[in-house]
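Sample pair:
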Amino acid sequence: MTTPSDASTSTPAAPLTDDALQYFSYGHLPDTQLRAVSKAFSDLAHALSLGDNAPEAGNVTLGGPVPRCPQRTLALNHLLSAKDAAVRACLPPKKK
């Protein structure tokens, strides 16, 4: 039997997705090359976090999701940095 004090000390369940996934959206990008580059990184990020059965994982095949741990978070953060750099590399050079 649970008491009110037991209920107040319980911790909420961990979220099923990583917070970093929100930064892998690409629908707002206007250029098709920018969108294609960003989508590739988004697919991999979703496959790492959700497994390759998630519709957001595209054609990436990893099996199930990578176990939730600090290294997975680090992998997603590095992937986000790589995505940002790759998208910026596709931008036209600034005119002086």
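The radius of gyration is 18 Å.
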